[in-house]
Structures are given as C-alpha cells and as structure tokens.
Amino acid sequence: MFIENKLMADLIVGISDLKVSNNPGDILVTFALGSCIAVAIYDPLVKVGGLLHYMLPDSALDLKKAEAQPGMFADTGVPLLFKSCYRLGAEKKRMVVKVAGGASILDDTNFFRIGQKNITALRKIFWKNNVMIEAEDTGSNYNRTVRLDLSNGKFLIKSSMGMMKEL
Amino acid sequence: MIEKIIRSVQSIPAFPMTVQKVAELVSREDYAVTDLVNLIKYDQAITANILKMSNAAYFGSRHKIKTIQEAVLYLGQQNLLRAVQTAGVSRFYRKVGGGYVTKAQELWKHSVAVAMMTQILSQKVFHCDDSVLYTAGLLHDIGKVFLGEYVQESFNKIEDLVTNRGYSFLDAEKEVLGIDHAGLGGLIAEHWHFPPEIKDAIAYHHRPDLLDKEGDYVSWLVYLSDQLCLMIGVGGGIDGLAYKGLEEALTRFHLREQDLEQGMVMLLEALEAAEDVINIV
To answer: Considering only CA atoms, which of B112, B132, B113, B108 is closest in space to residue B122?
Structure first.
C-alpha cells in the first residue's frame, strides 16, 4: 500500500518546508529525514493536518533566513505549522501530534549532536505550550521517510533499513 | 567474492581525459580561449552536459549561455573547471541501480551536495575554493556505484551486523563482502590515475583518522562534508547515518557546531541553485 500510494495526490514537503491541507485525498510526504525532524499534526474531527520538516533547532543561528524560510528551524516552524492548521479550522485540543527523525551518526564523541539537539528543542517547545506528543520514532542512526494520510491521520514511517511502521 | 569485485575495477571505462586536460590548461596563466573551447568540444558528452548545466544559478553567470565558447567566456576559470569536472564525473553515476539508493539520481545528488559542501567548508577554513576538494567530493562515493549490487545481495547480513552488533555500515560491508565502498573507490581512483590526495580522500572518507598523512586535509574535509550531507538527508541511502563520528574533524579546523549548522543552511541554498546540475543524471 505504501508504494502504490505514490500515484495518489502526494504533497511533497522538502527540507525546511511545511505543508498543511484539509483535503482528505492528500497525503503529505517527506523523504529521507536524517538528523532533521518531521512533525505531523492532525485534527481528526475536521480532517485537517500538516507536516513540517525542519533541519535545525534554533532560529537564533540566522534570523533573516528564519524569516524567509520559517520551516528551517524548530522554534519558527512549529508555531507556523499549528497556526496554519488553525486557519483551516483545526483546534489545538483535538490535535494529534506525532514526531519522527533526529537520527545521529554513530557517536562515540558526542560531537555531532544536531539530531539530539533537534529532539530536545522540540520537547521544550511542546512542554512550554502544553502539547503532548502522541507517538514518536526518533534517534538511532537510520533515515526515515514519512507519510501523513489526511483521510484518517495515519502516520507511516519507512526506515532506510527497510522497516515500515505506523505510529 | 572480493576477487570478483576487485577484478571488475579493471573493466571500468577510463576517466575522461578531457577533465584532466582542461584542469592542466586552465592552471597555466596564459591559456588561449580557443584552445580550451576546442578541448571541450572534442568531448561530446561533456559538451552536452556543460550546456545543460552552465545556466544553473550555482555557476552564477549573468549571461544566457548557449555555446561552449560562451561558457568559457562567461563562467570564469573556477566555475568552468567545476562544470567540466561535474560533467565528466556524471556519466559514471548514470547507471547506478539498486543497492544503496533506489534511483541513480539520489547518489548523484548526494555527490554534488558533498562537492558543494567541501567548498563551503573550504571557504570557512581557508577562505578560498579548492578544486581538489571539489573533485574528491564528487567522487567520494564512486565505490558505491560498483558495490551496490553486492550490497543488495548481502543486505540481510550487513543489516544484522549494523542493527544487532553495533557495526558501522562500512565495517559491515568489509566483514561481509571483504571490501567496503571507500576502499573500492580508492582502487577505482587508482585505476583512473588520480593524484594521491584524491585517491586517499576517497579511500578514507569515512575514516580519515586512519590515513595519518602529514598535511592531509582533503580526506578530513570530505569526511566532514559527507557526514553533514547525511545528517541533512541529501541523497541518503540504506546505510543511513551508520558511520563513525570523529570529533577531530572539528577540532583540527577549529570549527564549532555553529559553523556546521551555518554550513547546512548554505548548502540548502546552493542546492536550490543547482537543480540543473543535478538533473544531468
């Protein structure tokens, strides 16, 4: 089913990008998350959902860039993702939130920590805003491709090692 | 199996002479534009690719380029050299099938991204571009082009070592196949008579700490560029991020984590400007 879906209306979310939709025929897809993180949110009552693929934790790195491309950073991308879904009629209290990505290279030095920092940044943002993560598949050292099905909110993850699961 | 793999290197077509000849010619200060044009025109595949790529924003020409003559005039020496290298290397990536990636273009995109990242890091560290780094970046995964089918055949064994026994993907390849993609890439570079610093950078791009050659920076910066592109997820394959992290890659060049993050932002910009370059494969 995962592969056949390619023929349906796939909206592809690039790196540092986000997309939202209220069309139940749409599937939001993002490919090959390395250290980046995908945040999928879905309001089952109105069938509105969105997918963000951010690359870095903190917009303080480059404020100009963050303004032009808010989806690049966790702290600018996440609020925009939620607001964009509210505009389509979604409500915070019904939102189901799922998260994937944040992989790291094999790390005996704890030096390339971007994947881990991306996860931590997201937890902080959600903590501050009283948002619960319903399910997550983060960390480890493989790539992930994720799909959010707008008809039912199903969030599918395919890992580079070939495993497939629904969160 | 390893004998078969190593034997297959001998049947890999020669590296296009045009690329080396152009590099030689351009390195002389008094080269004639007509000589350069003639040199490139002689190689039809490179000519076709250069015309497809040279209007990419990445190469920054403000004029519309329709002929090799115009490419030589408008691209400037560094960009022309890069365009020729890119066009020459691309032919080897066209036939990648299965193994590490599902589409040939993904490995090519990864290679172009790593080549671009080497220039971003070279600018940060040395404040200049570096065509040796660029070539090494473009070719660092050439071993994957030829090892892919074997990796696919033995994937279950490799995956088991990585997932259950804490092997890096590279070590698992070596354990199962007798050779890893970096080592095989080094043999291919030798077959193509590349200079030692490029051959070493390809062969040690996951373990520059084992090369231990005085004055070596190429293998380290290719390593670092590769890790960053894997983290961003550009053209990532079944191997994912299962490679060894080496802290020394940062301390050696006095790079901070913030420099890496800025490099990632710059790479995304460069990739957007390079769509025509990626589309030649």
So the answer is: B132
Among chain A residues, the shortest Cα distance to B110 is held by A32
pLDDT tens, position by position, A113-165:
899 999 999 999 999 999 999 999 999 999 999 999 999 999 999 988 777 88
* A148 beta partners: A28, A155
Q: Do you know the residue count of chain A?
A: 167
Q: Quote the CA–CA distance of B238 and A142 in Å, as a whole number.
A: 8
| Interchain pair B240, A141: CB under 8 A | yes
Whether A34 sits inside 8 A of B232 (CB atoms) is: yes
Measure the CA–CA gap between B41 and B203, rounded to whole angstroms.
32
Tokens of A115: 């994947």
Provide the shortest C-alpha distance from residue A93 to chain B (in Å). 32
Three-state DSSP class for A166? strand
Q: What is the CATH number of domain B2-278?
A: 1.10.3210.10
Q: Which residues in chain A touch residue B242, judged by CB atoms under 8 angstroms apart?
A: 105-106, 141-142
- Give pTM, 2 decimals: 0.93
HSE, side-chain direction, 13 A CA sphere, residue A153: 17
Q: What is the dihedral of CA B175, B178, B179, B181, to 10 degrees?
A: -60
- Distance CA(B146)–CA(B173), nearest Å, equals 13
- At B239 the three-state DSSP class reads coil
Q: Are A54 and A39 in contact (CB under 8 A)?
A: yes
This complex has an ipTM of 0.91
pLDDT (tens digit per residue) in A64-108: 999 999 999 999 999 999 999 999 999 999 999 999 999 998 875
- Confirm if A42 and A95 have CB atoms less than 8 A apart: yes
Residues B136-171 pLDDT 10s: 999 999 999 999 999 999 999 999 999 999 999 999
**Which of B281, B265, B263, B272 lies closest to B56 in space, CA to CA?**
B272
Chain B residues touching A56 at Cβ < 8 A: 261, 264-265
Q: Widest CA span of chain B, in angstroms?
A: 59
Residue B118, token pair as written in the block: 């080497």
Q: Domains in chain A, ordered, with CATH? A: 4-166 (3.30.1330.200)
Integer Cα distance of A148 and A19 in angstroms: 11
Q: Alpha helix (H) ranges present in A17-112?
A: 63-68, 74-87
